[in-house]
Amino acid sequence: MAKDMTLLWGSGSAPCWRIQIMLEEKQLKGCNQKLLSFEKMEHKSQEVLDMNPRGQLPAFKFGNHILNESYAACFFLENQYKSQGNKLIPDSPDAQALMYQRMFEAFTLVEKMMNAMYYNFKVPEGERHDSAIHRNKEAMTAELKLWEGYLKKTNCCLAGQEFTLADVLVYPFIAYMFHYGLSSERYPALAKYYNSLKDRPSIKATWPPYWQKYADQDALKTI
Hints:
By secondary structure, the protein is an alpha+beta fold. The protein folds into two domains: 79 residues, Glutaredoxin, CATH 3.40.30; 121 residues, Glutathione S-transferase Yfyf (Class Pi), Chain A, domain 2 (Up-down Bundle), CATH 1.20.1050.10. Helices cover 52% and strands 8% of the residues. The protein contains nine helices and four strands. Strands 2-1-3-4 form a four-stranded mixed β-sheet, with helices on one face. α1 packs parallel to α3 and α1 packs across α6. The longest helix has 30 residues.
């Protein structure tokens, strides 16, 4: 079945990485994966636009189905292959509720991370304000403290003791933050979560080659 799948992806992109982890978790070998370069603007190529008119990666096709949103693609694959590979939606209503809460709550985490990291890139130089930079950092710090508390309670994965769809979807952004200098000392529960899943086969096998090539960055070291 995986031979009917095509994934166009970019290294270092958390949404692309989610689908790659999902393919590994569901033991879907043989997917036609093609690495494209953001630097060379290959995500704006006709090949991508034919699948994703937004000119963004990932671009994912399964048979006649096109799912370019990583959440949609991961849900679709879990539902199509419930009995194959690792089961990623728990039966327990408690664990399931927590899983859904964390995976969608992560949109807020990502938004605050992007505001803190990329304010200087998004706002023209003459319109930037130190007060806004400070507010963005404070908002991200408060958000990270929430997630610290969540992971101290579960002491394992996002929805409890089992690896779930929430981890597939959120872990890549947690890893992204540590790659960009998030402090293990200030956020020990997040760091424990990040390090404990590094060697999970699906994550290890798909670790972004861009990150392996370049040293960790420091954009978040002051958060």
